[in-house]
């Protein structure tokens, strides 16, 4: 029977598909770590109080990249090259979502609008990350090889999402509500399209590695497109709502380590 659990199990149990999965994840997390590190360094004077939290966000993302690379080493595998069509972070940047790498490479301080753009982009992408890690935790949370890593990353992603809610609400209360909602909506609509494209590209690669029959690949592709249709119609709204989280000051401490 074709199910999310059996699909993940098939990918994890094959060294070549597992290598690609971990490599894509590690690359994305490493990019996120660099981006947050640069943002922390470039925050405008009025928002310098956010620097420790943004730096913590980046440290968490760096840690996640190390975790996925450690999972590869544990199996004696080296990282694979990440195909461009599966590079979620860079595909979002090409759509003008988030802060461009060219901006982050400069030494010029960011603006207040840049900080709102960063937080809105993070609120949308961390929603996706939190949901994906929750799903992996459901299926692999007790797995002897993957469980501890997945539980730790899932906890971090939930913290990141809570932090974005809290900080965006602070900006909204300061009079930026309309700008935030416009930015969130643009981010969400772009993200669901990029997520669809990346999911199709990843599944196509996995199908080749695992030798899936054409019918199985077609069913999976149809499911991805159906998910996009739902998100385009209404599901994107879950990515733009703001509410005060139960976890207040979620990034107020130091990043936890993975040994």
How many strand segments?
0
Stretches where pLDDT is under 50 for at least 5 consecutive residues are none
Radius of gyration: 18 Å
Q: Look at the structure and give the mean pLDDT.
A: 95
Helix content: over 70%
Distance linking N and C termini: 37 Å
Major β-sheet annotation: none
Helix- and strand-based class?
mainly alpha
Strand residue content:
under 5%
Count of separate DSSP helical elements: 8
Order of helices and strands: HHHHHHHH
List keywords for this structure.
259 residues, mainly alpha
Structure description:
With 259 residues, this protein is mostly helical. The mean pLDDT is 95. The protein has 8 helices and no strands. It has helices at 4-13, 15-42, 51-74, 88-94, 101-105, 112-140, 147-210, 214-233. The protein starts with a helix and ends in a 26-residue tail after the last helix. Helix content is 72%, strand content 0%.
Structural topology:
Blueprint (H helix, E strand, L loop, with lengths): L3 H10 L1 H28 L8 H24 L13 H7 L6 H5 L6 H29 L6 H64 L3 H20 L26
Helix pairs in contact: 1-2, 2-3, 2-7, 3-7, 6-7, 7-8
Gist?
This protein is mostly helical. Helices cover 72% and strands 0% of the residues.
């Amino acid at each position: 029977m074709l199910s999310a659990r059996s699909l993940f199990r098939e990918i994890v149990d094959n060294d070549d598909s597992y290598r690609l999965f971990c490599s894509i994840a590690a690359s994305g997390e490493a990019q996120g770590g660099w981006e947050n590190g640069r943002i922390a360094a470039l925050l405008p004077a009025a928002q310098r109080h956010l620097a420790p939290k943004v730096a913590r966000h980046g440290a968490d993302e760096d840690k996640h990249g190390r975790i996925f690379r450690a999972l590869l080493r544990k199996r004696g595998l080296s990282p694979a090259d990440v195909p461009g069509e599966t590079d979620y972070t860079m595909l979002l940047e090409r759509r003008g979502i988030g802060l461009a790498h060219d901006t982050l490479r400069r030494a010029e301080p960011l603006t207040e609008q840049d900080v709102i753009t960063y937080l809105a982009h993070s609120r949308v992408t961390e929603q996706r990350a939190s949901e994906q890690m929750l799903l992996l935790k459901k299926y692999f949370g007790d797995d002897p090889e993957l469980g501890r890593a997945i539980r730790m990353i899932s906890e971090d992603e939930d913290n990141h999402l809570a932090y974005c809610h809290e900080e965006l609400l602070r900006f909204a209360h300061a009079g930026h509500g309309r700008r935030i909602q416009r930015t969130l909506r643009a981010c969400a609509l772009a993200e669901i399209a990029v997520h669809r494209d990346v999911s199709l590209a990843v599944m196509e690669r996995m199908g080749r590695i695992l030798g899936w029959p054409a019918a199985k690949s077609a069913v999976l592709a149809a499911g991805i497109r159906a998910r996009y249709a739902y998100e385009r119609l209404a599901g994107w709204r879950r990515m733009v709502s703001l509410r005060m989280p139960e976890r207040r000051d979620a990034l107020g401490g130091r990043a936890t380590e993975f040994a």
